[in-house]
Amino acid sequence: MSQSKSDIIQSILNTLQSDLDVLRRAALETHENSTDSQSQQEGKYDTRGLEASYLAEAQAAKVNLLEEQIGIIERLVLDLDDDAPIAPGAMCTISTDTDAYGYLLLPAGGGLRVEFQGMVFTVITPDSPIGSALLGEVIGADVKMPDGSDGFIDDIW
């Protein structure tokens, strides 16, 4: 059975949701530790409680960001016109003189790899160097690859 683009996105969403669940548990545990009686300051140079509260705050912010990114991915329009430029939700293939690369542009999940139609696609974000270089490009465009080689966009869907 062949996977569709929506199946690939759902698989990535499942991975991100699992990451979010782990992060939520860690944030809750860190928050509990920061307010625990053992985190109370024992001397004027004891900063364990303060450090734990900073960590809990940072983890909570990361939870919020990942929740937001998951929501954005869930609302992405996945059916692009044949001549549409690369935008979040697009998959593309790029050829160089020596290799072929597959990318899936999403707001989160950068670095995840998925197989689609016999090729490995790497999830990239618009903030990554290759993501920002590809954003808005069309089939046939020349692009500079992360390794410095020249590439050519073969297909977008």
**Spans of 5+ residues with little confidence (pLDDT < 50)?**
none
First-to-last CA distance: 19 Å
- Gyration radius (Cα, Å) is 21 Å
Major beta sheet, strand line-up: 3-4-2-1-6-5
Helix content: 40-55%
Question: Would you tell me the structural class of the helices and strands?
Answer: alpha+beta
Characterize the largest beta sheet: strand count, sense, and whether it forms a barrel: 6 strands, mixed
Mean pLDDT: 87
Residue share in β-strands: 15-25%
Total strand segments: 6
Question: What's the SSE blueprint?
Answer:
Elements: H1 5-35, H2 48-74, E1 91-95, E2 100-105, E3 113-116, E4 119-124, H3 129-134, E5 142-144, E6 150-156
Parallel strand pairs: 2-4
Antiparallel strand pairs: 1-2, 1-6, 3-4, 5-6
Helix pairs in contact: 1-2
Task: Explain what the structure shows.
This protein is an alpha+beta fold. It has helices at residues 5-35, 48-74, 129-134, and strands at residues 91-95, 100-105, 113-116, 119-124, 142-144, 150-156. It folds into two domains: 5-74; 91-156, Chitinase A, domain 3 (Roll), CATH 3.10.50. 41% of the residues lie in helices and 20% in strands. α1 (5-35) runs antiparallel to α2. It is elongated.
